[in-house]
Amino acid sequence: MIILHAYSDKRPDNQIETIQALKEIEQHYKVVHIKMRESNSYDYALYFMLSLNEDFMIIEQDIVPTLQIIQEMEQCPELICVARYNLYPVSTLLQTPVYAHRIVIGDDKYRWVDDNDKYADLYGFGLVRFRKEVIPLLKEYFDKNGFKEWINLDTRISLWTYQHNLKAHLHGFVKHNHDLIR
Fold it and tell me: Which of 21, 58, 121, 152 makes the best surface tag, with the fewest CB within 10 Å?
């Protein structure tokens, strides 16, 4: 399994713990660090990972992964796995933090996952692992839709996999420093 560390120059204070955690992880895994320079760099970075044709994981710049959760997700037989992490009121406009993943409950309706859920229909990319068996489906997405702004890549891809009857298996909690450290 190869790990993509997607990062940018934005919010460097939010990335300190991520960089520290990656030092330990790099002792066990190949980590590719790709700086997001353009608005569509994230799409191109994901497409690059697809070209490697092997299982891969994405760690976003403000997620603090642990070696334990990386190993747990790598060993899981599910096609798509995600770690739970919080989204905060400054991003969601909700009263309290919620996990970054959702379950569809009707047309254009969803609820945020909770601790009792095992799967998510729609998922964030903070810490996500894809099996190589999913790569053809992800390539098909890019072939049909092209490369777009980074801002909603996880929504676009998770909606695409959901429409093709794939869900993300939920794993343990990791810290998310986005909008937590200012």
Answer: 152
